[in-house]
């Protein structure tokens, strides 16, 4: 995602307004900009839909119980919002950071189709509570994840250089495969298989149905709540948090002009987080008191990560952080209360009371709408303006004044959305702890306003392009632009 004179999102002032010559094309390694933008658009639509579901069913936060509405809205957030943005960012960043081309744009296109159909169908069927159809749509989603994993693994392996970022990406893809596999197993465990006795296990269909029946029989041995918690932690820590930590090690120094972290320290943090992910999954699943040990390992890793980022920020060359970076760092700050709450909920012998259940609600709320949503929105305000700037304005560098990145979106809207977002999470927290449905609804309205504001603001970045005055005056376009 780098050109000769510009780096992706190097702060809002990092774009040269008056270069001596036109900037060359985005990068030979970057995929078409429409690929990540499709994922980003679906993600923003999904996060706008979340508060609508909570307005319809405020009891998902006001009381502690698992039902189809809780699970539907959780998957809308995790797969529709977070998953869509993460996949779009991976397709954009991995080829550029590793200096190679995406292995297959066609596979990425089909992944988008499978992802959209799969998660939308799953959310719909969870809301209706039809586990059989959840499994069918989940299989479509799993096919898409499989295409993504194959595509990005081949991309990493064909890269001319291998870095710690390669290791981070590969491990995250592994956890994506694991969490989807476990999720399909959970869906299989909630189904019955009357037709298994009538099907020949030597046929493909019979073998599949018998395998699903065996999976369901095995998973029914575990406590359903423990199985759900283990599945959730496998996804949030393995598929999302490890990738977030790795990508921020790469991008925060770039955005702030800070020093690059030590690869040895990055790999140390990465190894501890992977150990904590695997250990937490098994100990949560078996309700083992050793889960506190693995929680501690994860917190040690995050403490090292926080120390590293603090050093980057302290030694940065850019004195003032733009608001998009502050948005991102606010998300990382949620790791502090989340870590304390994780220790409490992992304590051996903790009895599941109504109060403990309310804190579990808050734990999930802070992770999804605090940590990850703040971080993802901060990154979108870096990535989307950069893609739009390169698409519409890069050909005119040196021919006319061009805007800086922060001038492509409305800064006031960004700050207003930030305030509404923070107020919504705090309101939801109070509503969850007090079992107060009106506070939950108020938080949902604030969150809806914040997300709609961000969606319009980021959409405005792409559609607001100005017609260059030089074009109207007959100044020819740069040759590389016309050829494309």
UniProtKB/TrEMBL annotation:
MF-aspect GO terms: cytochrome-c oxidase activity; heme binding
Record-level GO cellular component terms: membrane
Keywords from the named record: Membrane, Transmembrane, Transmembrane helix
Pfam families (UniProt xref): COX1 (PF00115)
Keyword Transmembrane helix: yes
Stretches that traverse the bilayer: 35-57, 69-90, 110-127, 134-153, 173-193, 230-252, 267-285, 324-345, 365-390, 418-436, 442-463
Protein name per the record: Cbb3-type cytochrome c oxidase subunit I
GO biological process terms, semicolon-separated: aerobic respiration
Signal sequence region: none
InterPro entries recorded: Cyt_c_oxase-like_su1_sf, Cyt_C_Oxase_1
Source organism phylogeny: Bacteria, Pseudomonadati, Verrucomicrobiota, Verrucomicrobiia, Limisphaerales
Presence of keyword Cytoplasm: no
Highest rank taxon of the organism: Bacteria
Species this chain originates from: Limisphaera ngatamarikiensis
Chain segments carrying region Disordered: 1-23
